[in-house]
Amino acid sequence: MIQLKVNGTARQFEGDPDMPLLWYLRDVVELTGTKFGCGAGLCGACTVHVDGRAVRSCVTPMKNAAAKNILTIEGLSAAGDHPLQRAWKEMNVPQCGYCQSGQIMQAAALLKDRPKPGDREIDQAMQGNICRCGTYQRIRAAIKQAAGVKA
């Protein structure tokens, strides 16, 4: 049996230890904010935090989540008032919205490690998160706003 915490709640999983964390979150726990994109860990739509680190949940097997703390977009702020979520809205970042939970979770991990990132740090940290709508400049601006850094 795999024991873990998801958004602060203790959980158990008795299924296939090789099942991707993404499917556990979406299908078992019914937290559908984390999206399935490429299935190969390349696009970032499935990004969640595992013990504070941004990971691609589509390629993270459940056995690697054992005894870990998992944070999803729903756990970042249920009310949608996390500084990144507010900045995303104010800067009109979302277009289709599909990649946004992964983008925000990646940005939250960045701000945890680098509270006042510069352009290069933002670009490096966000490099693996694809936005099909091309709102990269707005994403960078929103991260800076959430961090209190002048654009």
List keywords for this structure.
151 residues, alpha+beta, five-stranded mixed sheet, 6 helices
Structure notes:
This protein has six helices and five strands. The protein is an alpha+beta fold and 151 residues long. The protein has a five-stranded mixed β-sheet, with helices on both faces. Helix 3 (83-90) packs across helix 6 and helix 4 packs across helix 5 (119-126). The longest helix is centred in the last third of the chain and has 14 residues, at 100-113. The mean pLDDT is 96.
Compose a concise summary of this entry.
The chain has helices at residues 21-28, 73-76, 83-90, 100-113, 119-126, 136-147; strands at 2-6, 9-13, 47-50, 53-56, 69-71. The protein is of the alpha+beta class and 151 residues long.
Rg on CA atoms, Å: 15 Å
Widest beta sheet: strand line-up: 2-1-5-3-4
Percentage of β-strand residues: 5-15%
Uncertain residue segments: none
Helix content bin: 25-40%
What string, H for helix and E for strand, traces the elements in order?
A: EEHEEEHHHHH
Mean pLDDT: 96
Q: What would you call the structural class?
A: alpha+beta
**Tally of DSSP helical segments:** 6
Q: Tell me the major beta sheet.
A: 5 strands, mixed
- Give the overall silhouette: globular
What is the number of E strands? 5
What is the CA–CA distance across the termini?
Answer: 48 Å
